[in-house]
Amino acid sequence: MTTDEVLAGVGPRLRQMRKEREVTLAALSETTGISVSTLSRLESGLRRPSLELLLPIARAHQVALDELVGAPPTDDPRVRSKPIVMGGRTHWPLTRQPGGLQAYKVLEPQRKQEPEPRTHEGYEWLYVLSGRLRLVLGEHDVVLTAGEAAEFDTRVPHWFGSTGEGPVEFLSLFGPQGERMHVRARPKGA
């Protein structure tokens, strides 16, 4: 991969990291001391990244500089990611590269919430590891238990979270519109 190709990937990576952490450009600007316009131009690829700009962003997101620039992987295939807490949920990223299919292990604490279905572009696949996961999808309101999976188009209003009966641990795979997971499961009793 050429230097220009590596640098071209920095902007989308910065945008994805900021959005995953649910941080606005204004909030990141305040934390880093970098203007909103400069941050926006970095994310859109209109400004070439420099060490002076990337170091404060890496500190603000609490990640290694390698994660911002997408340093080529070493011979070690393990994904070493730090948990991210968003909206009370803890997410462990299971993929290294931004864009394309993204995988997360998620821990949702025990809590009773009123569902607030949302829509966005993409396709999602959920697999429950332990506990009970409530999924509201369009007109459906179902509870998934350990070993059960669901897949859906995220343009359908959806919400998922704890049933309020205990914590739930699940895997979430999310991809751009058109990417789908193929789940093969044995029929019950087979």
TrEMBL record:
Keyword terms of this UniProt record: DNA-binding
Matching Pfam families: Cupin_2, HTH_3
Protein name: XRE family transcriptional regulator
Residue ranges annotated for the HTH cro/C1-type domain, each copy included: 14-68
Xref: Gene3D superfamilies: Jelly Rolls, lambda repressor-like DNA-binding domains
UniProt key word Nucleotide-binding: no
